[in-house]
Amino acid sequence: MPGLRDTERIGVRELTYEVRKRATTFKIDPADYSCPALAAQLADAWIDYHHKAALKQSHVYRAAVRSFAKFTGPHLSKLGLDPADARLDDDRIDLSEVIYAWENHLTSRYDESSTRPWDLVSSVLTLIHHRAERDPKVPDKLRRRASAPPGFRKATGQSLDEFSNAERLAIKGAAQTDLRALEKRLAWGRELLAMGRDPREHGWMVLPNLVWAARHRILTTAAMREHYPRSSRGWPPELEEVRALGRQVGISGLLRGVYGLLFPQELDLHSFRVLLSLSMLDCTIEELHVLQIPDLEFGNHGVRIVQTKNRADRVRADYHLADSAVEEDEEPGELVYEGRGDWDVPGLLRRLIQVNTLTREAFTCEPFLFTAVENKGKTKVMRAGFARFSAPGRRFTHWIGSHTDADGTPVLDISQPHDSRRLRKTAKTTRVVALGGTLSDMAGDDHSIQVFHRHYAHGTTAHVLAGTAMNRAQQLVFDKVTAKPVLVLPEDQAQLGEPEFAEALGVAPDQGAALRDGELDMGVSNCKNPHDSPHSTPGKLCHVAPAMCMACSNAVVFVSQLPQQLLLADHIERMRLAMPPTRWHAVWSRQAKALAEVFEECADHIPAARQAIEDQELRLDLPLGMRTEYDR
Question: Which of 196, 478, 512, 619 has its CA 20 to 30 A from that of 232?
Answer without folding.
Answer: 196
